[in-house]
Amino acid sequence: MGRSPLKWWLKTERGQLVFLEGLGSCLDVVFGQEQREEDVSDLRALFTFVQAALAPVDGDAWQGRVLLLDELGVLLSLGAAPVAVLDFVHYCRVAVCSRLQGNIVVLVHSNEDSGDKENELLVTALSHHSDLILWAEGLATGFCKDVHGQLKIIRRTSLRPGGERDSLQLYQYKIQERNVAFFARGMSAAVL
Amino acid sequence: MAARAGGEAVPAARGRGGAPSFQRKGPPGGSRLAAIAGTRPAVRHGQLLLSTGLPSLDSVLGWCGAGSEEDKYGVYSHLLFKYFLAEGVVCGHDLFVASAKELPTSILKELPAPLLDNCRNEVGEEAAAVKSEDDSMQIAWRYQNLPKMEVNFDISLVSVRIFSLYVTLSARKLKFCVFFLNIAISSILKCVVKHFLLANSNMNCGYARLLQSIQKIIYQEGFDGSHPQKKQKNILRIGIQSLGSMLWDDDICCTENPENAHSITKFLYVLRGLLRKSLSACIITVPAHLIQNKAIMERVTNLSDVVVGLESFIGSERETNPLYKDYHGLIHVRQIPRLNCLICDVSDTKDLAFRLKRKQFTIEVRETVLLHSLEPKRWIMPIYGYMTRHILKLNDMTSHSS
């Protein structure tokens, strides 16, 4: 993705959702007729797009802006260096969180004994800077039909002045067709 | 992979109990989706689903065919590859076969044909014999409750095909395109030099040419809806053999730090984009045992919709292990599809093995080996697999009708 400028495809629904689908956009790049500019190795163009999409427009009543990034590991697969991805996230944080008082939600995959060092680096760095971490993983005991996994909610209160410890909450969940049911550990519907 | 038929999620107001629920806003029912032969509409998430050609694999994966890791000698993955293409031929889908190893036309000559009625009866008789023997066996109580592979869809809606490996499809009905990458030795050297000199990683020429070829076919034949008046809608089944091997001019199988480590992942990303935008599905076999960099395999898995690993016992110490004597290998489901929904129909059993019977390749629940070590003569473990159960059901149906 950092090799040529992408033609951004914007789709606005009721003016509240701006959606960039990488899969669709990449086809225009790879099979398009346009001339490609010099290779770039960072994600500046992507950040420019994000900034433009979230810029306040006169007359709009947006209260809180949320930037959803799904999923950052794909950027590594496409050839971006971890440093470039972290720089991009940093710039987004400044633009969205500090200036626009918004929030950023980032999705990354991770494996326990992963061989992907770049991805692990990304995950570790992002975890350090996050205010809230939602960590969904399978059960340590293996596959279970009634409990699909557990969710750890880590509030990074240690980052705030006062220096308290991070608070950790654990829930278990079961994924249903259109919903996810959360419950305390050991309290799944099958057991009760 | 499945073709997207539209539909968006709209967040509804908070439902009962305070939990927000998403409602799907999409085309009602399956009337519009079921227009293409060989597909089954999944009304739940507005997708068209395809069969892989192996009913037992369908029930494991929920009727979506896609990538598969190659086993060590490529024997069994090649079988799955052929089953996928054969299912396409029988359903009347168009095929695109790409290979760097053998001529695609010779692959197409060896596709298995579906078992015909007289063969089916033969298989049915065998199964009936097995069944009557079972009744007289002492079955350990534990194994009566052994979970069978559940059938997650109504069999009567679908004509399940059983492919025989001894009979091949005749070529007259095949409509296919082929892509054969034949790089002469001198040009391999040139490419190696080029990659050595270029600092940045680039998608290698073999993959780029394959992508161009696929995109051209999708566009020209109208699989992406670009020529709606030309012909009736059909599915394109793409098969790519041994992606990532040296024959595709990729060096990820040679070294742990390959020059163009991102080539294969970029290729898969763009391919996925092409498949999402068209009525097509793709099966890819990858020699995972040769790829030395584990990060690449993880990224390939994350970029795929479905990944199935085949571990064959050929040449390993498990071949002579009595615990595995009835099987030829193990199946590891590494990724299940989650297209347009939070969760898909998949089998509950994860401990799967496969074997190659005289005419068929079957996937079965591997029985636990707990009691096998104790007095094997006394404890008899009936092996139930989806194929066997289906054959029994067919037998019931034919005997009722006669």
TrEMBL record, chain A:
Belongs to the ELP6 family. Pathway: tRNA modification; 5-methoxycarbonylmethyl-2-thiouridine-tRNA biosynthesis. InterPro entries: ELP6 (IPR018627), P-loop_NTPase (IPR027417). It comes from Nothoprocta perdicaria. It holds the Pfam family ELP6. One of its GO terms (biological process) is tRNA wobble uridine modification. This is Elongator complex protein 6. Coiled coil: none annotated. One of its GO terms (cellular component) is elongator holoenzyme complex.
Automatic annotation (TrEMBL), chain B:
Keywords: Cytoplasm, Nucleus, tRNA processing. Pathway: tRNA modification; 5-methoxycarbonylmethyl-2-thiouridine-tRNA biosynthesis. GO terms for biological process: tRNA wobble uridine modification. It is found in: Cytoplasm; Nucleus. It comes from the Eukaryota. Residues 1-31 are annotated as: Disordered. Its main location: cytoplasm. GO terms for cellular component: cytoplasm; elongator holoenzyme complex; transcription elongation factor complex. Residues 1-14 have a biased composition (Low complexity). Belongs to the ELP4 family. Component of the elongator complex which is required for multiple tRNA modifications, including mcm5U (5-methoxycarbonylmethyl uridine), mcm5s2U (5-methoxycarbonylmethyl-2-thiouridine), and ncm5U (5-carbamoylmethyl uridine). The elongator complex catalyzes the formation of carboxymethyluridine in the wobble base at position 34 in tRNAs. This is Elongator complex protein 4.
